[in-house]
Design a protein that fits this description.
Elements (H helix, E strand, L loop, with lengths): L2 H11 L5 E6 L6 E9 L2 E6 L2 E6 L1 E6 L11 E4 L2 E5 L4 E2 L5 E8 L1
Length: 104
């Protein structure tokens, strides 16, 4: 295990950084508990001469916890359900998935 991987494990174990969630596969009946770091950046989209600002919901999850997320999978955080939209993206170290979510 690298030092970076050990640091990520500590961050995801910290209750002030990460929250418990449930992943449910869109293609099989598989589900598993995971820990995620929530992010909600605003996204700016240009349309002609105008710019639109929209809310987004993204989560980061360890590859160790979720080896193969796919578009259409469901992520449940507390009472809120989200669907993975678009292709998941891994970080440079190949340790973290970034998932773009939309409310279900």
């Amino acid at each position: 295990m690298t030092v970076f991987a050990a640091a990520m494990d500590r961050i995801y174990a910290n209750s002030s950084m990460a929250v418990a969630a449930l992943w449910i596969s869109a293609t099989t009946s598989e589900e598993r508990p995971i820990r995620v770091i929530r992010r909600a950046p605003d996204r700016i989209t240009e349309f002609g001469a105008g710019r639109l600002v929209s809310d987004t919901m993204m989560v980061d999850v360890r590859v160790y916890d979720l080896p193969d997320p796919r578009p259409g999978d469901l992520i449940v955080i507390g009472a809120d359900s989200f669907t993975v939209q678009g292709e998941p993206i891994r970080d440079r170290e190949r340790l973290i998935w970034s998932l773009d979510l939309r409310p279900s």
